[in-house]
Every structure is written in C-alpha cells, then in structure tokens.
Amino acid sequence: xxxxxxxxxxxxxxxxxxxxxxxxxxxxxxxxxxxxxxxxxxxxxxxxxxxxxxxxxxxxxxxxxxxxxxxxxxxxx
Length: 77
Description:
Shape: rod-shaped
Low-confidence stretches: none
Oligomer: single chain
C-alpha cells in the first residue's frame, strides 16, 4: 500500500484518468456514426446511396445516372 507522496501521486493519476474517461463519454465512434447516419436522409432510387440534402442528391443523380430519368422530387431543386 502506498504512503505519503506516492499515495498523493496515485490519487492524482486516478483522478486524471477518471476525468479523461468522463470527457470522452458521448464521443465514441458509435455515437458519431449514429449522428452521421441521421444526417443522411435522401436515398438514391437507383443505387441506394445516401445523401444529406437534395442538392447533393441531384448532383449525384446527374453525374452517376445520366441516362436515367430524374425523379420528380429533384426536378425543382
């Protein structure tokens, strides 16, 4: 068992470790992936690719599927 100065150092190290763990909570890779997935709301009718907004969806459709007819929801964008 540690005594004196070593005990104080050990407690400080443990407190720092706990603070880092608490700060990191909510920033895990799965949380970030879930947030990114929520942002991808438009799905391409042809290739099922996901886009965040209609403008990007229209650009995707014009570049990747030029021979296909443009969907109705993209014609006015």
